[in-house]
Design goal:
The protein has about 280 residues and is of the alpha/beta class. It contains eleven helices and seven strands. Helix 4 links the parallel strand 1 and strand 2. The model has no long low-confidence stretch (mean pLDDT about 90).
């Protein structure tokens, strides 16, 4: 049953990210190469700049483990913005595991354009069944990908399996607050095109059950609110590029749904931040 659920949610995620509307929205509104939640210094700054700062925040959390020669697995790598920043800044080698063929095709093109294709291997697949042997990676990295999992314990177990002794697991995710009312969280998950939302308490318990050490959560929920307020503005006054890239129906749906997600952040019903633990 768990295998069926994981496979079903993987198919949903693949179909979602392969659609033209979603691809156009992420490419022209969310941040282009870095399609992840940002860490903002200014509420009006560009989303892509804030998203790049998130990569810097995670990298600082991991520290010297990202040195030259390190092996990094990016689970749910999107268009590869984080992978390219890591490979360029630290000289590490990155395996970018991602389920969307559309995103992977663009990722490979961008790697070639940046001269980083020799340091980044883009692999099409699911993080429920990571196609690498035990103890392969110094760092396992993920940004807002586990929310698409239908079997998060399995995905985290796979991440733990491929970590070297002393290796680092670092990830972010969009979550429900531990005390958020279920009847309000469920429709929020549906608006985000996912089945359900984990909580910080769930992740902390799972990481400890996997025998990981130094489990820590850096709560950055205020930045999630800023991020969704920025997205609301992006679709309220869309750029010509966004209008050309998505259907009018999809843009109307975004205009209806994104303010509701922002409102949930304002109420404290959604959480976001950086988890870190070591093997």
């Amino acid at each position: 049953m768990a295998d069926d659920t994981a496979a079903r949610t993987a198919d949903v995620a693949r179909a979602y990210y392969n659609t033209d509307d979603v691809d156009g929205f992420y490419a022209h509104a969310w941040g282009g190469e870095d399609i992840h939640v940002g860490v903002y210094e200014d509420a009006d700054e560009p989303i892509d700049r804030a998203a790049g700062r998130t990569v810097e925040r995670l990298a600082a959390t991991v520290g010297t483990a990202l040195g030259a020669g390190a092996r990094v697995l990016d689970m749910g790598s999107g268009y590869g913005g984080a992978a390219r920043r890591l490979a360029k800044s630290f000289g590490c080698r990155v395996v970018a595991l991602n389920i969307s063929e559309v995103q992977n095709h663009r990722h490979r093109e961008l790697n070639v354009r940046c001269g980083l294709d020799d340091r980044i291997e883009v692999v099409s697949g699911s993080f429920h069944d990571i196609p690498f042997p035990d103890g392969e990676f110094d760092v396992v990295w993920s940004q807002e990908a586990l929310c698409h999992s239908g079997d998060r314990p399995r995905a985290l177990g796979q991440a733990r399996r491929v970590l070297k002794a002393g290796g680092h697991l670092v990830f972010t995710d969009i979550m429900a607050a531990d005390d958020a009312p279920e009847d309000e969280v469920r429709p929020l998950a549906e608006r985000l095109s996912i089945t359900d939302l984990a909580t910080p308490g769930f992740y902390e318990a799972q990481l400890r059950m996997l025998g990981l050490a130094g489990v820590a959560f850096d709560d950055l929920g205020d930045h999630l609110l800023t991020h969704y307020e920025r997205l609301v503005e992006e679709v309220r006054r869309p750029s010509p590029a966004l209008v050309a890239a998505v259907s009018a129906e999809y843009l109307d749906r975004l205009r209806a749904n994104l303010p509701l997600v922002a409102a949930a952040c304002r109420k404290g019903h959604l959480k976001w931040g950086v988890f870190h633990a070591t093997a």
